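Reviewer 2 asked us to include a model.

Predict the structure of this chain.
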Amino acid sequence: MRIVIAEDDPLLRQGLALLLRAESLDVVATTDTPDGVLQAVSSYEPDVAIVDVRMPPTHTDEGIVAAVEARRRRPGLAVLVLSAYVEQSFATELLSNGVNGLGYLLKERVGRVEEFLDALHRVAAGGTAVDPEVVSQLFTRTRLNTRLDRLSTREREVLALMAQGLGNSAIAERLVVTDGAIHKHIRSIFAKLDLAPTDRVDRRVAAVLRYLEDARNT
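Predicted model (structure tokens):
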């Protein structure tokens, strides 16, 4: 796996590089600017870009803008965005144009090495990794009069774990229920969110994006 790291904090940038190289992953470039991200993606053709949300010069949304542009220039590039805290608009902006090969994690998750590496590998394989705290906070900000109000407490828990990228068996294990119970909850979630079967839409992804969109419009 070829990786580019874009992080303006030198300690975190170097720490990430050391951690990933210790795991026998190929860190081909590190940078502290959004322009550096695009140059590195063009020069090294990485599989994954790990990008900080806030980068120079204004430390607002440069990282998100660079991540979106990098994926435009290199289709199929997996991007794992890191943020110091939950930034609702940035999370939904990144995820709203498709979620394959995308992740959004809080920086504190890096210290939980196994969780961080699991998210990285999931994103590199074309999956989605959304930090549990991001999921939690977006749920609490969602309007009471949205379709999410139709969901039971258990269904919300299932959807939150779906948003983290967990499969049915992993969700069942986390909630200490059977796989069959999870299947029933997910079918109910799809029905309550008006997600009909279609060959063009992954209903699991659509369900997660539905609440993200509702949260963004709050």
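The chain has two domains: 2-130, 142-216. The mean pLDDT is 83. We have added this to the supplementary material.
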